[in-house]
Amino acid sequence: MITKAQKKSQIKVITGNAAAAIAAKLARPDVVAAYPITPQTEVIEQISQFHANGEMDCELITVEGENSAMNAVMAASLAGGRVFTATSSWGLVFMYDAILAAAGARAPIVMVNVNRETPGIIAVSSGQQDMISTRDAGWIFLIAEDCQEVMDLVLQAYRLAEDYDIQVPVMVHYDGFYLSYLSEGVDVPFQEDVDRFLSVLKTQPERTKLVPGGRLGCGSHGILGGYLELRHKHVSAMERAKAKFEQIDKEYEGIFGRSYGGLVEEYRMDDADVVLVGSGSMCGTIKSVIDEKREEGVKAGLLKMRMYRPFPSEAMIKALKGKKAIGVVDRSLCFGFKGGPIYTELKAFETQLGGSKMISFIDGIANTDITKINVANMIDTTCDLAAGKTVREVTWVSYPEAQKEGGL
Amino acid sequence: MTQKKKDNLTKVMDYLKYEDPFSKGVAFCPGCGLELLLRFIPQVMGNDIVITGTPSCSAPVLLGQNNQSWHKLSYFGTLMTGAAANATGLARYYRKAGIKNTVVCFNGDGTAADIGFGNLSGAAERNEPFIYICYDNEGYMNTGIQKSGTTPFGATTTTTPFGSASKGKNLRRMNLALKMAMHKIPYAATATLSDLDDLAKKLLKAKEAKKRGFAFLHVFAPCTTGWGFAPENTIEICRRAVKTNYFPLWEAENGKIRMTKTVKKPKPVSTYTELIKKFAHLSEEDLQILQDDVDYEYCMLGGLSLLEGECRLPASLED
Question: Which chain A residues contact residue B99 at CB under 8 A?
């Protein structure tokens, strides 16, 4: 991340949730509908307070469940409104049918999902399993590393979702507990700058809107030919979102002085031999450990995924090509596969990586901290792989018993 | 036609102030109660409504499954799970944007009483500014005649078949309209197709009430295919449902119930069921159970309307 001296912003010490709420306020949505769930609740509490104070001029719908939150913002969005909602975990999967419908209807919704586990044992703990459970819904997924990036990604998400060439809903993910309740310094932009950043959307053609008497419908029964056309257009829009997001990141830097490199952030990658691929809050820890390992002469680097859907394969191949060994760190599981989801997906591009070897690390499930020791172990194992030693394909970093149990 | 009937018809026609936005031939079954209702609503309320609907009997026409026979209304085809929440989103955005609107959330009993009841109740609790109309054909008729929460005692459906261990549906139907009135919304009412002037008045009242918040209409709409009766009997069945108190006509403003049609000498419920095949297997004893249930519901309605006169909702909390 590059940060220049700011003249037009204010530093506040706030949580990731507060950053999301303030970003939503700055985007001036017409309709906000939300339902509380740990660890997202603070987002809608803050928005409710902004609304109660008269600082936020939106229709606030305090729905009776997440499914209604998504249905309400979907309809408001298709009617022409700018919308916001936030959820987590069970809330996300409770809105699953509406998530699919919203994507299919190309409703440019911006939603924050505060990552939390979704197992049968009601784990109130962090993990990206909720994100993985909705990855094929047809939404654009962005992942934040820290509270500042939560703020920045929500604002960037509006430009991406509502762009005339895209019109795909965007979900901004950040780690529950680790970021939702973490207070840190956040550069909060001023309203006029956000207005300027988002005003580009007003110069674009108006999107189709559902208005009374407009003799226009949405959500029709799909006829075979029309259905294929719409699905293909959706897939194409997802592909276009990659270049568009790079461009938005650059424009954001122009106004706010912060750039993250677009789809992926490369940390000490130029001369790296071994690379960890990560996403979200773990990346800060990984960067610290890389700095320490560099002191020891280990040429390690980090490739941080900022965008997860569409899968930024081109950017990842470009960054990873020719590296000796790659360790992919997943905070979720991909049932039916041994390795984590991101690892499994990256494997599809293995032949394009110029002989790089790959292994999977599973860690950070259900609040098992991805500690500096864990990261150091991952880097060591990846170095062993680079050196031609035999290592396990999949390592459950915080669960050494997995090795004894066999199977993996 | 008697002079009285002619006068009544003129009275109904006076309410039809707007064009019928549906094409003349549409893909509903002959004798479909829903079709009459669907054509009636925009002719009374205006063609500038936004109608939302879900996969259901109304979907083939409303949502354009049969794309050669459609309508000219703005519409939103949505999910059964979140029908009322969708309408909420539309109505709230229009309000925010200053767009004059009448959002009509038009659903069958499956959405209203079963899978979408949670968000219907939520929208009523929040007093959302739109009109929810449930056309009640007492089951999932489009899916192939399955039981819903409003399927009455004794009715056969494909999931409550008659057999040696079953009378059809062995449970009573829920009173959806009464549940909605208990939310103390600005307007809740029942209506049916044999009493079109009553229906028209209630549609206009709902449109007026919508300015103050949530309006709910429960319209009894018999299904010739699913229930097994001759297509020409649709209106007669509606009439008998009213005359037996099987489906009483009433309205409630802020929960205060008032009968809009009182039947002086209610006929036995068997005069209603005799026209319908789904009740054909019921014995006299079974019919008595249905009769008792009808009497109970009617008695309860009367009792509640008296109680509502006694207990006052704080005026500041009305609407």
Answer: 211-212
Q: Are residues A45 and A126 part of one domain? A: yes
Q: Give the mean pLDDT of B253-268.
A: 95
DSSP letter for each residue of A109-136: -EEEEEE----TT---S--SHHHHHTGG
CA of B83: which chain A residue's CA is closest?
A71
Closest CB from B59, B89, B119 relative to A31: B89
pLDDT mean over B137-166: 96
Q: Are A240 and A284 within one domain?
A: no
CATH number for the domain harbouring residue A27: 3.40.50.970
Say whether B85 and A212 touch across the interface (CB within 8 A): no
Burial of B125 (0-12, 13-18, 19+ CB in 10 A): middle
Same domain, A86 and A218: yes
Write out pLDDT tens, residues A362-381. 999 998 999 999 999 999 99
Indicate the helix (H) or strand (E) that contains A272: none
Per-residue model confidence as pLDDT tens digits over A35-83? 999 999 999 999 999 999 999 999 999 999 999 999 999 999 999 999 9
Chain A residues whose beta carbon lies within 8 Å of the beta carbon of residue B94: 79, 212
pLDDT band at A142 (very low <50, low <70, confident <90, very high): very high
pLDDT category at B319 given cuts 50, 70, 90 is low
> Confidence class of residue B215 from pLDDT cuts 50, 70 and 90?
very high
Least confident of A43-47, A112-116, B145-149, B308-312: B308-312
The residues spanned by each domain of chain B are: 3-317
User: What domain count does chain A have?
Assistant: 2
Q: Which of A73, A97, A219 sits opposite B76 (nearest CB)?
A: A219
User: What residues in A contact B82, CB-CB < 8 Å?
Assistant: 67-68, 70-72, 97-98
pLDDT, averaged across chain B: 94
Residue A406 confidence class, pLDDT cut points 50, 70, 90: low
Confidence of residue A119 (pLDDT cuts 50, 70, 90): confident
CATH number at residue A355: 3.40.50.920
Judging contacts by C-beta atoms under 8 Å, the chain B residues touching residue A98 are 79, 81-82
Cβ-based contacts of B89 with chain A (< 8 Å): 31, 33, 61, 71-77, 79, 83
Q: Same structural domain for residues A27 and A117?
A: yes
Strand, coil or helix: A63: coil
> Looking at the structure, do residues A280 and A252 belong to the same domain, yes or no?
no
Q: Within this chain, do residues A79 and A100 fall inside the same structural domain, yes or no?
A: yes
| N residues, chain A | 408
Residue A212 contacts B, CB cutoff 8 Å: yes
For residues A290 and A219, state if they share a domain: no
Q: Which CATH superfamily is domain B3-317 in?
A: Thiamin diphosphate (ThDP)-binding fold, Pyr/PP domains (3.40.50.970)
**pLDDT tens-digit series, residues A82-95:** 999 999 999 999 99
Last residue of a domain, one of A209, A227, A259: A259
Q: Which of A33, A79, A212 is the closest to B100 by Cβ?
A: A212
Window from A48-52, A88-92, A218-222, B114-118 with minimum mean pLDDT: A218-222
CA distance A395 to A359: 8
Same structural domain, A179 and A250: yes
Give how far B53 is from chain A: nearest CA, Å.
Answer: 9
Q: Which of A223, A238, A259 is the last residue of a domain?
A: A259
> What pLDDT does residue A7 have?
58
Chain B CB contacts of A70 under 8 Å are 82, 85
Check CB contact of A213 with chain B, cutoff 8 Å. Answer: yes
| A211 touches B: beta carbon within 8 Å | yes
Which B-chain residues 22-51 have CB contacts (< 8 A) with chain A? 47-50
Domain limits for position A292: 264-405
